[in-house]
Amino acid sequence: LAEAMSPELAEEFRALDPNSPWEASAVRQPEMAVPGGGPDTPNTTITNSSQPHHDQPIPTPGSDGGRGGNDGGDPPPALVREATTAATTPSQAPSATTTSGRRPPVQPTAATTVVTLSIAPARGASKIVAILLLAPTWQKFFSAMERDRESGFWTQSESNSNLDPDDPILRRDEIALRLDQAGLNQQQQDALIENLINNKSNEGRQVAEIIHSGALQGSTGFSDFLVEMTSRSQDAFRGHAAELRFSYDLTQQGYPSSRIEFPSKNTDIGDDVDVSIRGIDGEVEYSYQIKSVETANGVRKKWGEVIRQLSGETAGTTNRVGIFEVQQEMSNLNERTRRAMYAAAVDSGVSFRLYFTDGTITIPPDVEIYPE
Hints:
The protein has helices spanning 7-14, 77-86, 137-141, 172-182, 186-198, 204-213, 222-228, 234-252, 296-309, 335-348, and strands at 22-33, 45-48, 56-57, 111-121, 128-134, 143-145, 260-261, 275-278, 284-293, 319-326, 351-356, 359-363. The longest helix is centred in the middle third of the chain and has 19 residues, at 234-252. Strand 8 and strand 9 (284-293) form a beta hairpin. By secondary structure, the chain is α+β, with helices and mostly antiparallel strands.
């Protein structure tokens, strides 16, 4: 049973007094799909086996009665609380927000592990059986899929070469022509090309290829975005390279460059959108904040910042999404971080998609990350 509990409740369960009159055993049943709330969703019950089987609901905080048997004592609080929590269906989860006008994240439909808990007082009184429906953390707090065209942002960083000024295929003068078409002056063109040749991240050639493709030439704010890439900051260049790859993949997904926007930067940390997508009516539908980090620890440090950056006027009432590119496998994101991000997503209305080397994680599960 402890394996199916949350870590906190598992500690309480294991710490129960061994001399307690309660004895417990648990049997894990195969997983079953539980609908996201509704009349057919199973309820957790306690049954008194010494009497005819009249199901009684597990007591919840603030309720009266609800004893499971006539032995004169209730089950340990940890077990009752776990059962009550487990019985909560997705439709009972708190709504993200209604006052701001933002669309709340989709509430997940969880696969559920059925655990039969048998609690028997040692003094020979009646036996209590509780059927617990415990949603595994892996399904409950996020969904996972492969990193491919279906997931979006499938172009991973190629940090193996910079732009070669003597490259006969990807020629410097052709890059300069694209920059000129984007509206950069000669000084800005020279500064950006210098970064493409000598950047320490070795992503210069990949960035040059995207610029040379012309795929984002029709995007609002693209000229100012390229000017930002003239900065000598290596961290800034790497972040902009991720934003550029993300935006390029949007065009490959079928979004016209005219619907993709690089919003003007605001010095207020609570108002910073990297990329946005407009609907066919011209109104911005999705706002993205994009982070490129080396490890899952970088996600832990920055996800709160992403929520703040998407909480200003620029993102407004659009669908707000934090995008993380992580140079590690999914297994490196620990449960505590997943739980914290899920709770924050439900509270703030900001969703997350994390792109790892071996797949993607979406928090909350199955929420829409891109416009249809």
